[in-house]
Design brief:
There is one protein chain. The chain has helices at residues 11-33, 43-71, 75-80, 84-101, 127-152. With 156 residues, the chain is mostly helical.
Length: 156
């Protein structure tokens, strides 16, 4: 049995999924702007989030471009049409890697004492290299957002 996510989805289902995504996005924004013990907008929290998202984007953008070049298809739709087993392996691997990263956090998702935001490996990088990574990551995040916005608007 070959189950595919994202294939043969009706227009109303797509609109419902977009509405749910929008509602969840607003809920997430509200969760991070409501005063809680988590203090999500501390300097360390913001830097950690930026590093994590920029590194994901630095991998995602070249991957999306490669898939588009090799298949001639919209890479987002290509990935959505992969068999469920392939998607399960991908998301399970991503979840496992994220679980390994959680050891750096204390209660309330605050970095443990002595942990440096964005530093996953015990390698010392110069300020220049860190600055290049930050700016390349920011550019990659903007490019990924543009890629996904184009896909959502039906432009590909």
């Amino acid at each position: 049995m070959n189950i595919r996510f994202g294939s043969n989805i009706s227009q109303s289902t797509t609109q419902t999924m977009r509405a749910v995504t929008l509602i969840l996005s607003f809920a997430a924004c509200n969760a991070f702007t409501t005063p809680t013990a988590l203090k999500p907008f501390s300097r360390g929290w913001v830097k950690e989030a930026e590093k994590k998202h920029s590194r994901v984007a630095l991998v995602a953008v070249p991957s999306l471009m490669t898939i588009a070049a090799m298949t001639g298809e919209d890479p987002v739709q290509f990935l959505n049409n992969q068999p469920a087993a392939t998607q399960l392996i991908f998301y399970s691997t991503a979840g496992l890697l994220e679980t390994l990263n959680l050891k750096r956090f204390d209660k309330g998702f605050n970095l443990k004492e002595g942990e440096e935001p964005g530093k996953l490996l015990p390698i010392q990088a110069s300020e220049t290299i860190q600055s290049v990574e930050d700016w390349a990551g920011r550019l990659a995040m903007v490019m990924a957002a543009g890629y996904f916005a184009t896909t959502l608007s039906g432009g590909m």
